[in-house]
Amino acid sequence: MLVTRPVHVTEIVRDVSYLRAASEGPDFQALMGLLFPERKRSLYPHVPKQQPGKVDAGGYRLIVLVSGARNIPQRRGSGRSFHGMESMHGRGSMVRSLDIENGLEVDDIRTDESCAHVVVKIKFQGKSYWTSAVSSPNPTWKHTVCFPLIDCAGPISPHALMHLQDRIEISMYDKCDIDIGSEGGFYDDENTTISENIYLGKISIPFSSIYYRGSIQGSFRLDCPDVIVGYSGQQFDSSEEEDHGFAGDEADSSSFGASSIDSQEVHSRGSTSNLALIQKDESRPCVDILITTDPIQRPPESIPCEAISEEDEKLVRFVNDWRGQYAQRCPKRALFSVITPGPDGFGYCASRFFKSQRPPKEMECVHKCSHFVGLIPTTEQPATLWRTSQVFLTGNGGSRVEHAILLANFFSYLSDKYPDECGADVWMVMGMGFPEGQTAYVMRKESIGDMQFWDASNSHAYALEDQGCPLHDIWCLVDRNNIYANLQKNGVPCQMKFDLHDRRCWMRLFSQQSPVTLPLLSIQEDLLSYEDPSHQAAMAIQDELAHHLKVSMRSWRRGLTKFRNEVSEQLRHALELLEIAMLEGKRAKQSILDGLYDRAGEKSLSGVPLHFLLPDKQDITSQVKATGIHLIKRPEVEYAVAVRVYAYPSNVFSVWVFVVAVSPVFLFS
Question: Is the alpha carbon torsion for 169, 170, 172, 176 positive or negative?
Answer without folding.
Answer: positive
